[in-house]
């Protein structure tokens, strides 16, 4: 079976020219993309835009894997402000449809972070549960599920409870290796392996979100490979990498990324 390897589209910019990036991915062996364009902006994708993305993917022989949801302070599924929450639901519905039309099966969503007060934290978890209840039929209609991503400072009891309240075809788990390393929670992939819906794989030294190549930092790659294999994960192995050296040739970075990511992926599938 041919190796399926995915990379996030925003490795060097968010919302910049798309075709040069797709050409680089295809030329260097990647087979799939995880859509991370405009993840911090709250505009809706029209069909003409989706059609244009589909044409570019086809032109370069790439396939679409999943999408990172868009979210802002004024449009968030976990907002305690009802108007902002509703805008967040509309935005997520848009990204679910976009993902389905391009052949993907998951939209990654961030859970609420810890707020200034416990009361506000509870309000935001209640808000995201309400949003997911409202979006569940859209997930079923398009056969696209939500992937709840682990964030620093770590997965909490609320995270566990929210996953338990929805069926796997509506809500799954997006494993972020860098975030797990910062949070000192290497067990997350084993804990939620049965609900694994998407991967954000990258390295760091356990202190900040570096989005570095595998082997650069202290992420426990052998353990991750073993857990992915045990989960029976059949989707492309996806890497969420960032080119932070502005002086480095992007093509050189993508070539190195493919070599290092391939070496890991062969252990995981």
Question: How would you summarize the topology of this molecule?
Answer:
Blueprint: E1 5-8, H1 18-27, E2 32-35, H2 47-59, E3 63-68, H3 82-101, E4 106-109, H4 118-142, E5 145-149, H5 157-164, E6 171-176, H6 177-183, H7 188-191, E7 196-200, H8 221-231, E8 237-239, H9 250-268
Parallel strand pairs: 1-2, 1-8, 2-3, 3-4, 4-5, 5-6, 6-7
Helix pairs in contact: 3-4, 8-9
Q: Helix/strand-derived class?
A: alpha/beta
Helix content: 40-55%
Q: Span between N and C termini?
A: 10 Å
Shape: globular
Describe the protein:
The chain is an alpha/beta fold and 269 residues long. It has one domain (5-268): Divalent-metal-dependent TIM barrel enzymes (TIM Barrel). Helix content is 43%, strand content 14%. The chain has helices at residues 18-27, 47-59, 82-101, 118-142, 157-164, 177-183, 188-191, 221-231, 250-268; strands spanning 5-8, 32-35, 63-68, 106-109, 145-149, 171-176, 196-200, 237-239. The chain has an 8-stranded parallel β-sheet with strand order 7-6-5-4-3-2-1-8. The chain is globular and about 50 Å long.
